[in-house]
Amino acid sequence: MASSSHMGAERLPPSLDEIAALAEGERSRLMPALGRYIDGVPFRVEDFPDEDVLTAMGIENPFELLGLYHGGSLTAEEAGATGTMPAMIFLYRRPLLDYWCETSESLGRVVRHVLIHEIGHHFGLSDDDMDRIEADTD
For residues 105 and 50, what is the distance between their CA atoms, to the nearest angstrom? Predict the structure, then answer.
């Protein structure tokens, strides 16, 4: 049996692309509950939110923001509104990994939680709705 001090020593944290692939996998799990909100919405994974985002949200510590839904709303798009930003979901790798290391949850579950809450807050879902969706996808 390998010594515990050597276990995982070769393991590197997931890359931006690996987090994006994980998010795509979680999208498929969320399609039954959130499909109309996330179908075709691209994910973009960055190490941290940029200064403009942090300033706009009044956040000083970049580790406090795990993800962000950015862009127009579904109702504006359905109404044919122009001039709105295309929808995109940002995931922030370093804050996600930091949070993951502090919990006993799988990284996939952390990413799924962030996706549910970013989508839910953007589209006005209640906390009860988001909790139910999260429980249904576990």
Answer: 27
